[in-house]
Amino acid sequence: MELLKDRVALVTGAGGGIGRGVARRFAREGAAVVIAEIDPDSGARVAREVEELGGKALFIQTDVLQKASVEAAVAAAVDQFGGLDILVNNAFVPTPNVLLEDKTDEMLDQTLTSTVKACWWAMRAALPHMRTRGGGKIVNFYSIDVDIGAWLHADYNTAKAAIIGLTRSAAAEWGRFNITVNAIAPTAMGATFHKLAAEHPGFAERSAAMRPLGRCGDPEDDIGPVAVFLASDMSRYVTGESFHVDGGLHLPGYNSRPAHVPVREY
Question: pLDDT tens, 51-103?
Fold first, then answer.
């Protein structure tokens, strides 16, 4: 359909999982895609995949913990393709899954930096280039974990809640530049899913059964199209919104309490 023909998109964390799925879907819709990824092997591999799909690609090694690296990725997109139309903030650096009382300041700093600050840096770096193009599309990533207060993810939940505040603030202020800013709360069969499925027999089946649609999402075919919608002119009158793309998992939610943690402790 080429809904993104002649558009330039930058996707952070595009070397695997949902980021890879979005990058591939964008390529199928005609976009030139910048793969902003810290791992050189996976980043280069996805860039080749994009080109095999007939799209234009650029891999730029990007560390979302470093402001200069994030800004360099945006600059590389503009240098290579002449501008920037679409920004997808997907990457983050995970910390160990431990209880809130065991999370360290260092863990919190890492999560806030790789999630909130990286998103902030990328958006602000993209702004002048989007204004030059007469507008732009920003897609940030939220999480169902915030809604349910997922155990062992206190730092991540805190950061993703902040993403909603940033998304709405930018949507309110940057609408005057014809820039839309929205958020997706996805669940899909990314790297973490496959790791858990390999380590815990039956995990994939139980995960699918929790969703009203009865299946787990595919990064490219289930998450990707929603990202395309938000990155295309189809969503020209949509901004400041957050979308659950999870097969309906947000309706029942889920109990994330670890089995070893008692209900009451004194």
Answer: 999 999 999 999 999 999 999 999 999 999 999 999 999 999 999 999 999 99
Enzyme catalytic residues: 143, 156, 160
For 213-239, the pLDDT digits (tens) are 999 999 999 999 999 999 999 999 999
Give the span between the Cα atoms of 214 and 207, in whole angstroms: 9
Domain span holding position 81: 8-190+220-244
| DSSP structure class, residue 16 | S
Domain count, the chain: 1
pTM for this model (two decimals): 0.96
Query: What CA–CA distance (Å, rounded) separates 242 from 168?
Result: 9
Is 197 inside any structural domain?
no
Look up the CATH number of the domain holding residue 184. Answer: 3.40.50.720
Question: Dihedral through CA 169, CA 174, CA 175, CA 180, nearest 10?
Answer: -80
Which amino acid makes up residue 242? Answer: S
Compute the residue count for the chain.
Answer: 266
